[in-house]
Amino acid sequence: MDPFADTLQRLREAFVSGRTRPAEFRASQLKGLSRFLRENKQLLQEALAQDLHKSAFEAEVSEISISQNEINLALRNLRAWMKDEKVSKNLATQLDSAFIRKEPFGLVLILSPWNYPLNLSLGPLVGALAAGNCVVLKPSEISKSTEKVLAEVLPRYVDQSCFAVVLGGPQETGRLLEHKFDYIFFTGNPQVGKIVMTAAAKHLTPVTLELGGKNPCYVDDNCDPQTVANRVAFFRCFNAGQTCVAPDYVLCSPEMQARLVPALQSAITRFYGDDPQSSPDLGRIISEKHFQRLRGLLSCGRVVIGGQSDESDLYIAPTVLVDVQETDPVMQEEIFGPILPIVNVRSLGQAIDFINRREKPLALYAFSNSSQVVKRILAQTSSGGFCGNDGFMHLTLASLPFGGVGSSGMGSYHGKFSFDTFSHHRACLLRPPGLEKIYAIRYPPHTPRNLRVLLMAMETRSCSCTLL
Amino acid sequence: MSAISEVVQRARAAFNSGRTRQLQFRIQQLEGLRRLIREREKDLVGALAADLHKNEWTAYYEEIVYVLEEIDYMIRKLPEWAADKPVEKSPHTQQDEAYIHSEPLGVVLIIGTWNYPFNLTIQPMVGAITAGNAVVLKPSELSENMASLLAAILPQYLDQDLYPVINGGVAETTEVLKERFDHILYTGGAGVGRVVMMAAAKHLTPVTLELGGKSPCYVDKDCDLDVACRRIAWGKFMNSGQTCVAPDYILCDPSIQSQIVEKLKKSLKEFYGEDAKKSRDYGRIINSRHFQRVMGLLEGQKVAYGGTGDAATRYIAPTILMDVDPQSPVMQEEIFGPVLPIVCVRSLEEAIQLITQREKPLALYIFSPNDKVIKKMIAETSSGGVTANDVIIHITLHSLPYGGVGDSGMGSYHGRKSFETFSHRRSCLVRSLLNEETLRARYPPSPAKMPRH
Q1: What secondary structure does DSSP assign to B215-274, as a single string?
Q2: One of A134, A217, A237, A244 is an active-site residue; which one?
Q3: Where, by residue number, is the active site (chain A) (predicted)?
Q4: Confidence of residue A457 (pLDDT cuts 50, 70, 90)
Q5: In the annotation, is B210 catalytic?
Q6: Are A167 and A68 in contact (CB under 8 A)?
């Protein structure tokens, strides 16, 4: 028995019926999402607190508001985004109408993760619905409370003939992926990303993969350690470190390290108090499995801040490690926890080499008062996104595409990029009937004379043209 | 390490040297390609003649000229495209710099195909070079003359480490696909397209797949049939039908079928004479396997014109089939040959239904003087691209992306889209360290100021 066949069939039929095409329909779906957020704020905050011990502040800032902003942006711009995009014409096509038509792909699958289970479900969903697709959302089963809200409450706010939430773990997801979708949007780790892309290949389904990596954080000698420490600690510990764009490790000189460590301690104490475990602002690790994984990393290098953990609470203290080797486990995998290793480098050049020896990360951070240093790192490395002198603020700008490169991902979204990601850009050239004489030269028989005439016409051209 | 691995590693090392970063370097390489085309045109035409019976007109005008235009266009536009693009800022980022920074991806693999073996290998390469990548080319072994020629002459005009040519068949292609690339652009059929994407998935390599399908051509009762048939004949039979965006089959009302047949015949005779075999301008099928395949599709069909072939020269006469059954073999696969089936439909709706029951094609054509008909056809179908009242030409405008959807492909290129396809758009926000006071509010502890529920 295929548990998904009926649902997918229903959604496909709805798409074929054309229901999702009119702007009014799409706008009403988006308004439904908006109402969902507004009417269930408490429910959502509770779910996020249960799943990740997320504070009301973090829930508001990084889950609810950010989703609401995407919805509002899409509602405001929907008709403009849907419009045919006229393109420039050459001499030969002056009389034609040339434009790009944005069309929905059809049936879209969104696979969302557990760390920002609301935002990373709704963000892509906004784009897919705005673009006129029918959508299947498969939220993470690991963030159980939020999964429940998404499965039981969200569908009431949108047209269920065009939207469905399906549930399940890795096995069910595998079975789901055997079906044909017209687009797959996946957020998660690179290993599963490969599995998703391989499954998509069987059906020639295009994908966007939002993956991850180890995001380097270079700290130059020329900067104020306390300012840097505030920013790095804040973005490292946000959501207890479970953020794909969090600064993963620091690269700095031993001299800077000596100044940075006390500054980091000071920042952590200011943020979370002397006993971070009792702070309502510090999240918890999502699961026993990840807790154990992170606890294992605490024995790498030397602990200079934190290092405590409490299994009964899935609590890991904000921790800084020094004397870390490149070969240590903490430097081999994306940490995804409130642990910050510091690796020493003796120069900017060495830092750049270190970064370039590794996979391209989703984000890269560089702290320096010198704009030359910041620009040099930008120029000599690659990453999904980049922020100079702060943490992951770049993803708060909907005018910047959010996505990875290399093993940190492919494709991007946010704002209009979401709409474009979930649209097929269809090239259209409409020629008025008649005017056959102009095109006559293209037909056989091709005489040497015709070719000479054509070549002469092309050489004297002042702009590029093809006389087809 | 295998020879293929070495070649790819060398390209990667050359990319890592950083020399492609300079725009001037890329422009020099593009100018090298332009010189190659101008100086070696005879050799290029010779290879195309040997592989596909093209002549200097069809070689230049249906293949080479587009590459030249692309090169000229890219040289001109590169500084603009490569520049950082500032973006709109939000209230709390007003003091910052926010922009999109375009970067090369690294080492790009381009797998070419045999029907336009110069254009479909080199035009993507032009985009990849412009975007600052190293490019490994794997031309199709079916167009063997072009494959050898490219391997021989490209190193004479381009940086030898950055742009190697790897030749060979299935075995070599499989070897190449084991290597890690930063983007793969493949032109060819859906079957191999899947294989390429699966190989790419192992390295999380993004792909552009330019595939194909059966591009429908709907002919409205009210259109000027003389013009329509001439254009259709031109687009269908160029390169002996071996064009991914050729109109594959015609859909029309039964009442105009005979007229269409007559007018197609008239145009074909004008183009290729009474016996197309004698025409310099009429192509040949690439190999025996495809010759057999296309001839096989004629079985059981009502031949209105042509229908003959000569295996020795791989010549198939321009062929028109009438009253074709949509279930028959000729309507089940992309024909890729000079055989034009006409399928009768009684209405625009029936045509749309027939089209939408099938896989999304690479191109879709509608001939009608009626705007409403055109708009309806476009609105109720999907395809890579569309041309109304003509065929093929939408792919010649470089401001339009060239690519498929569904089984006809993913991703696109040409013009600026090529540059984007082969670049990474890196989002950049650059802030100051001196404004810490203004940011204090974002840090924990978050006290009673949060609206409690």
Answers
A1: -EEEE-TTS-HHHHHHHHHHHHHGGGG--TTS--EEEE-HHHHHHHHHHHHHHHHHHH-S
A2: A244
A3: 210, 244
A4: low
A5: yes
A6: no
Which member of A211, A227, A450 has the closest CB to residue B436?
Answer: A227
- For residue A210, indicate whether it is catalytic: yes
> Of the given ranges (A443-447, B1-5, B24-28, B362-366), which has the lowest mean pLDDT?
A443-447
- Cβ-based contacts under 8 A for chains A and B: 296
Cα separation values, A426 from A433, B63, B71, B144, Å: 21, 23, 24, 33
- Residue B276's Cβ-side half-sphere holds a number of Cα atoms within 13 Å equal to 32
Determine how many CB atoms are found less than 10 A away from the CB of residue A29: 25
Q: How many CB atoms lie within 10 A of CB B142?
A: 18
Backbone angles phi, psi at A392, to 5 degrees: -75, 55
> Residue with structure tokens 């009762």?
B221
First to last CA, chain B: 64
Residue A440, pLDDT score = 80
Report the alpha-carbon distance of residue A347 to residue A353 in Å, rounded: 10
Residue A465 has pLDDT above 50, yes or no: no
Residues 6+ apart with CB under 8 A from B326: B343, B354
Q: Are strands A315-316 and A309-310 parallel, antiparallel or unpaired?
A: antiparallel
| ipTM at complex level | 0.97
**Chain-wide mean pLDDT for chain A?**
95
Q: How far apart are CA A206 and CA A204, in angstroms?
A: 6
Q: Is the pLDDT of residue B448 over 70?
A: no
Question: According to the model, what pLDDT value does residue A462 have?
Answer: 37
| Residue of B61, B356, B442 to mutate for A, most A C-beta atoms under 10 A | B61
Chosen for mutation from B237, B279, B386, B433 (greatest number of chain A CBs closer than 10 Å) is: B433
pTM of this prediction exceeds 0.95: yes
Closest-CA residue of A relative to B386 is A428
Secondary structure (3-state) at A113: coil
